[in-house]
Amino acid sequence: MNWRSDSGFSLLELTVVLAIMGLGFAFVAPHFARSYDGLRFRTAVREVADGLRGARGIALSQRREAVFVLDVDGHRYRIDHQPSKPLPDFIDLTLETVAGEREDSGRGRIRFFPDGSATGGRVILAWKERRRRVDVNWLSGRVAIAEMQP
């Protein structure tokens, strides 16, 4: 009786295939990590812009002042007294706003008014060579995202 069969793969063949797959993964994995951080960066830019737009929407719809607060050192933001939302730590944040809306603790505010206007300002988000700014027009309160040159 011969138990050996010609169908199937030998242990050596399976080992070679797994080794090739492992080498391929070793070369591809770092690219996925960079892509993931890039996705997190783009998402953070949109989250900040959406937060600013949300504050403007509250001011318009509820006919009262609404405040967007950015904690540059703590990498967090919030609208009015809502719970704060985190931003990734690897992103460098800068807030440009009027002097009366800045605090010494690394926090600052952009205030929106019931007529749609705002104190105005800019949030700059940077990661590696990428820089984006989220601008708030003081007259209209409109929020816009723009790419900045390195």
What would your notes on this structure say?
The chain has 150 residues and is an alpha+beta fold. The protein has a single domain (11-148), classed as minor pseudopilin epsh fold (3-Layer(bab) Sandwich), CATH 3.55.40. The chain is built from 1 helix and 8 strands. A hairpin with a 4-residue loop joins strand 1 and strand 2 (76-79). The chain is elongated and about 85 Å long. The mean pLDDT is 91. Its main location: membrane. This is Type II secretion system protein H. It is found in: Cell inner membrane.
Sequence-ordered SSE layout with sheet pairings:
Elements: H1 11-62, E1 66-71, E2 76-79, E3 85-86, E4 92-97, E5 107-112, E6 121-127, E7 130-136, E8 143-148
What's the CATH C level?
Alpha Beta
CATH level-4 homologous superfamily: minor pseudopilin epsh domain
Report the total helices.
1
Q: What would the principal axes of the Cα set say about the shape?
A: elongated
What amount of the residues lies in strands?
25-35%
- The figure for the number of domains is 1
Ranges where pLDDT stays below 50 over 5 or more residues in a row are none
Helix-residue proportion: 25-40%
CATH architecture: 3-Layer(bab) Sandwich
Write a short abstract of this structure.
This is Type II secretion system protein H. The chain is built from one helix and eight strands. It has 150 residues and is an alpha+beta fold.
List keywords for this structure.
four-stranded antiparallel sheet, transmembrane helix, Pilin-like, 8 strands, N_methyl_site, minor pseudopilin epsh fold, 150 residues, 1 helix, alpha+beta
